[in-house]
Amino acid sequence: MLIARTIDELQEAKKALSGSIGFVPTMGALHHGHLSLIRQARDENEHLIVSIFVNPTQFLEGEDLDAYPRKDEADIKICELAKVDILFMPSVETMYEKDELCIGAPAVCGYVLEGKMRPGHFDGMLQIVMKLLNLSAASNAYFGKKDAQQLALIIQMVKNYFMDVNIIPCEIVRDDRGLALSSRNVYLKGDENERALCLSHSLKRATKLVMSGTLNVEKIKKEMHTVLQDVDSIEYIAIVDRDFKRLEEVEVGNTIILLAAWVGKPRLIDNLWI
Ligand code: PAF
Predict the structure, then answer these.
(1) Is the minimum distance from the CB of 128 to ligand 1 under 6 angstroms?
(2) 31 catalytic, yes or no?
(3) Which of 33, 53, 92, 217, by CA, is between 20 and 30 Å from 224?
(4) CATH of 2-170, one of 3.40.50.620, 3.30.70.141, 2.40.30.40, 3.60.40.10
(5) Where are the beta strands (DSSP E) in 16-124?
(6) Shortest-distance Cα residue to atom 9 of ligand 1
(7) Residue among 34, 47, 121, 201 flagged as catalytic
(8) What are 161-171's pLDDT values in tens digits?
(9) Is 202 in the pocket of ligand 1 (CB under 6 A)?
(10) Residue 28 CB neighbour total at 10 angstroms
């Protein structure tokens, strides 16, 4: 595995690749969720590039940029074992200039739910994903469904900018108790680990309701609230279609149920695609 830290090193390393390139962008602190993206990309492409870059422009003032878990040594080992061809680990100075041209998230889908709670987050996320997709020249790029709105916006960016890459949505990976894996789960302390489980429990309750014929969004949300009693606060529960438009009734095959809640220090998100 080659580790590239500059654009020149990356371009040089890419010269040795011929055939399809799979790309998995990450912010490091790799867990089994990332590993499942990496494995899928490995299986489906001749070559595999992974990036690790904690992107400052997608963190808001007061968010956990400085404290964001960094585990470079372990991450490098994981990538080696996963047979990554090129691991791209640039510095902030490599990725950004002063006074840059910026990409803005769309006015509607970019400013509801996560976009409303974290204004500016998606602008920074799209800016770095555009750069990374261009640099990797990937045929296929892999993103988890856990960040459902991020995924939808990346798909839209690729469409709107006529970018030549397939975006491959990948299933959410959960621990054996149902907690969706996230690098921020390391912040969960003591009983917060147990309390965080009510996020996935509430989604299970929603599934049961839909399966038994309850499609009314308000009824489902009310039930989810009752299951979410162990979190410290609920930021939102939303039931939207795959374009993030609010629904009154669940449309099976075209619905995402999303929630964000605080449990101790971390803000956790989870979702379910029905
Ligand atoms: O999902 C993430 O880890 C990040 O938002 C991404 C896509 C790597 C961009 O920084």
Answers:
(1) yes
(2) no
(3) 33
(4) 3.40.50.620
(5) 21-26, 47-52, 86-88
(6) 125
(7) 34
(8) 999 999 999 99
(9) no
(10) 21
